[in-house]
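Subject: Sanity check before I submit

Could someone independently write out the structure tokens for this chain? I want to compare against mine line by line before I put it in a report. The sequence has 191 residues.
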Amino acid sequence: MKEAPGYIKSFRLSSLSRVKPWGLSGKRVIDIALAGFGIVLLSPLLLLCFAACRLSSPGPALFGHPRIGFQGKYFRCLKFRTMVINGEEVLREYLASHPEANAEWEATGKLRVDPRVTAMGSILRKAGLDEIPQLFNVLRGEMSIVGPRPVTEEELARYSTSVGSYLACRPGITGALLTESNNVHATSWWA
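---
Independent answer below. Compare away.
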């Protein structure tokens, strides 16, 4: 993966390399046990979601989005693909022809009605099933079951003085931000 951006380097990643994620041994054992158990228990559902993604739209069933994890290392955060494969092009065209959606996108970086999301993707997202493949990220040590939300490089810049704290632990499948109401705007947690 690519090299960490300058503002991450300014937090002296070399000193972070001596930092171990909080509760390293015990938490890691619990993470491995829960992820392994979850994969075995949910394997029929994993296979069903995989097949549904493959059959409902062209392209791969899994999507790996680059995120920044422990010590500023990049990893591919796995999800079932919920969008069309030419999503950026579809988004550009949609925003160009829908000024109200463009204003919403500029303000929040999200759309209430997103033309990129497939029919099956909408179902997977509403049920929270699109994130089940992150159990494999947990097994690989890139994520934890509980931790801060995995963020992109652009999102990490909003963490301001908390970047060091974020980089000192593994991102999680679930955490405080994900268990709060969907009405809470994420940036209120970053300030």
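---
OP: Matches mine. For the report I'm noting this point. Confidence is low (pLDDT under 50) at residues 181-191.
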